[in-house]
Amino acid sequence: MNALRITPLDGVIVAAYFFLTIALGLWFGRKKISSAEALFLADREATWPVIGASMFSANISSQQFVGQAGLAYTIGIAAGGFQLVGALCFTLLAVFFVDVYLSLKLRTAPEFFERRYSPGARMFVAALNIVMILCANIASALYAGATVLTDLLGWGTALQFNLAVGAIAVAAGTYTIFGGLRSVLWTDLLQSSLLIVGGAITFGLSLSAAGGWAAVLPTYGAAGNSLWSLFQPWDHAFGWLPMITGGLVLGVYGHCTDHDYVQRALAARSVFHSKMGALFAAFLKVLALFIIAAPGVIAAKLLPGLAHPDQAYARLVSSYVPPGLAGLVLAGLLAAILGTVAAGLSASASMVSYDFVLRFAPKLSEQTRVRLGRGVMIGVLALCVVLAPGIKGFKGVFGYLVQLWSLLAPPVFVCVVAGIFTRRATPRGAVATLTVGTVLGAITFWALGRPEIVAQLPRYLRSALNCGFVIMLGCAATMALVSRSGGANPGANEVADLTAAASGNSMTPDERRTYRLTLAALGILWLAVVVTFSPWGVGHGR
């Protein structure tokens, strides 16, 4: 058994913050929840700071601190390229998708597919979205949190790992089930603040321990490439080519159609608050490059030879952050798990309720709908507690997430992009695209898990991101060919007309000016970071 890696003071701080988060979540949700819309959409009263912070908390959490920092430990800051892709995609959510979603008055993201295509397409996407949330969001958050807890407490048995998973699940489920989305939004604001502060502390102290920028910048991989470059070779699993192609497909699916994030945009009190919330989340995603991926690279210099890369961030904290501050950092890291689990619970229960149960039982009373939503949350949480330990079989939690997301995202990406930007896509084409894409994704996921098959593939297809892009091309061809064969297309004009009308009339002149200035500032910041961590900046090789 390993030794305890934190002091008793840090343990008290971590425990106190867990209880504080639960208490605040219950307090923010003290208002009686009398309808499903109050439970799942917070009565559509949210403002942009809360929306943006909640999107960031749901997106980052501990999977990123554990998994992405672990990936950066092995391949460099290119692992943080997902943060920049995510920032770009949150911007696309604000610019192109929010107008459509709010104009249609959606209650769930999959509802778009019914309005644009057909009820069958909606249920297909909802089922896929629920599976993704269960396997890739909630279960992985529980796994990542248990990994941190067991490492810090010196626990080594399977039973102790399962106990850690259960403790996190109970803590996260308490305020989500009773307080609904309103509690989730406000606790996420607190958690995001602590995440950023804790990440900045870890980055600053570990950088100082390594000797400053001058000491860590000349850090190179085995091929002589800089670990501070975002641009890995094209044939690397996370190289520049798969990040531009498959990474963008994955990002649009995850940030613009996943109900985890769209649910927050739908909870906004106006289009302005929804758009600004997405842009605020994009700013925070750029910042995450420095508080998540950069510490992983520093850990590679300070802590070589770790048994598992997913230990990098927690070991960095326990080794180089002093007592008291370490407890604060770890409290933010562990509390963020609650944000991701809570987001997944609320989103999955919302889709089960609206996209499935209420379609067949629309006359249920509001109180029955509330009880139904809470019951679904309990069931989802129990299932994910069972699934979480199985993620250990992958080489890293972030690799598991990327592989799963990359291969299931393409059909939804094609359907939503075609549905918004062209009137030619038909319901028949959508169903064919979703079917073909999901089957191809499942087969590829199985094949990439078998080393003997991977060894026979062309180098390009050994990356899940590249495979996802190829599947996307197949889905696009399917959509075009099947849609061309004809069929009714009742939703195309409605979506197109609403998009055109909303784009010009959704904000006041002052709101529109603020939004455009924010968008320009975000674009400048994004480009500056990309250039800085490129071969033309600090990321040049030997």
Question: What does this entry look like structurally?
Answer:
- With 542 residues, the chain is mostly helical.
- The chain has a single domain, classed as Sodium/glucose cotransporter.
- 75% of the residues lie in helices and 0% in strands.
- It contains 23 helices and no strands.
- The longest helix is centred in the middle third of the chain and has 53 residues, at 158-210.
- The protein is globular, with a radius of gyration of 22 Å.
Main features:
globular; 542 residues; 75% helix; Sodium/glucose cotransporter; mainly alpha
What's the short story on this structure?
The protein has helices spanning 8-28, 36-41, 48-59, 61-75, 81-103, 111-116, 119-153, 158-210, 213-216, 240-244, 246-257, 259-266, 271-302, 312-320, 325-360, 366-387, 397-408, 410-421, 427-448, 451-454, 464-484, 491-505, 509-532.
Structural class: mainly alpha
Order of helices and strands: HHHHHHHHHHHHHHHHHHHHHHH
In the CATH hierarchy, the architecture is Up-down Bundle
Q: What portion of residues is helical?
A: over 70%
Query: Using only CA atoms, what is the Rg?
Result: 22 Å
Q: Low-confidence runs (pLDDT<50, min 5 residues)? A: none
Average of pLDDT: 85
What portion of the residues fall into strands of 2 or more residues?
under 5%
CATH class wording: Mainly Alpha
Q: Kindly report the CATH topology.
A: Sodium/glucose cotransporter
CATH superfamily: Sodium/glucose cotransporter
The tally of helices reads 23
How widely separated are the two ends?
41 Å
Number of domains: 1
For the secondary structure, the number of strands is: 0
- Overall 3D geometry? globular
Largest sheet entry:
none
